[in-house]
From TrEMBL:
It comes from the Bacteria. One of its GO terms (cellular component) is protein-DNA complex. This is DNA-binding transcriptional LysR family regulator. GO terms for molecular function: DNA binding; DNA-binding transcription factor activity. Residues 1-58 form the HTH lysR-type domain. Belongs to the LysR transcriptional regulatory family.
């Protein structure tokens, strides 16, 4: 097998559609099919299960996908290193981050990526998450970090990074910080601060109504830093995604009956025709150790 066949397989593994994969690879579908059959023959096992329109990876295919991705990533790193040394050329990626995605998890990853890719430059753009897929398909952005997985689209590659629950946030010294699980009735007697830019805002309002809680916000703003600082200073409580605290002095606690969560994803245009820097970054996104929900652990 050769690198072209490996790249064809990785594209098919992303799209799970022979027609779309062939189009993205710029080859005829029979050519792609033969390219997939070649490693299957050499490895002695089926990589892709085909049943009419149903295409999915076998267990062996999933294992091989990780190894093939490592091979392609190694080649990309070699080429990038050689090109950088020969031409001194830096590569720039334009990445979008939805306004509602907190900086800490993303910043840690970007710091790691910059350390691993010394010739990479990243330009970060704050975006409305709903605009992300369109900006990708238009070529304006190379990748976006979104608060929720976009609608299924074979043109897009989606890597889910982490899930985070909506939780109650209060000052570390607040009485509610002593709870492992906050009862809804305890919230209703507190001053409520309304984060107008919250992705969960409409669902949170529904929760309050169903719990027969009348929440009259004492403070409202789209400025996340101001609202969180006001909570940390003891002005009241708010609801906040699990990994979204950006000021010190906050305690986050789960609320009984409040079962809302979002899944933060990295999205880019699918296929192997992307710039080496983006392919390398995407591989790093997939292997990075992202945060995991730790239940009701106290801070």
């Amino acid at each position: 097998m050769n690198l072209a066949q490996i790249r064809y397989f990785l594209t098919l593994a992303e799209t799970l559609n022979f027609t779309d994969a062939a189009r993205l690879c710029g080859v005829a579908q029979p050519t792609l099919t033969r390219a997939i059959q070649k490693p299957e023959h050499e490895l002695g096992g089926t990589l892709v299960y085909r049943d009419g329109k149903d295409t999915r990876l076998t267990s062996l295919g999933s294992d091989v996908r990780e190894e093939f991705a490592a091979i392609v990533g190694a080649e990309d790193r070699i080429r990038a290193s050689v090109n950088s040394r020969i031409s001194g050329r830096r590569e720039r990626l334009n990445l979008g981050i939805a306004h509602s995605v907190a900086p800490a998890p993303i910043s840690r990853f970007i710091t790691h990526a910059l350390g691993e890719m010394p010739m990479l430059e990243i330009l970060l753009h704050p975006i409305d998450g709903k605009m992300g897929p369109g900006l990708l398909l238009a070529g304006t952005l190379d990748g976006v970090f979104l608060a929720d997985k976009p609608a299924d689209d074979t043109k897009l590659s989606v890597i889910e990074l982490f899930s985070e629950r909506l939780m109650l946030a209060c000052a570390s010294s607040h009485r509610l910080a002593k709870f492992d699980m906050v009862p809804p009735e305890e919230i209703g007697v507190e001053s409520y601060l309304d984060r107008l830019g919250c992705d969960f805002r409409s669902q949170a309002i529904d929760y309050f109504m169903n719990a027969e809680l009348v929440m009259r916000p004492r403070l409202q703003s789209e400025r996340e830093d101001w609202m969180q600082q006001a909570v940390a200073d003891g002005a009241g409580i708010c609801l906040l995604p699990e990994f979204s605290a950006i000021v010190p002095g906050l305690a986050l606690r789960p609320v009984s009956g409040l079962n809302l969560e979002r899944r933060v994803s990295f999205v880019s245009v699918s296929g192997s025709g992307n710039a080496p820097a983006l392919r390398h970054l995407r591989m790093m996104v997939g292997s990075h150790r992202w945060p995991h929900s730790a239940g009701a652990s106290k801070q």
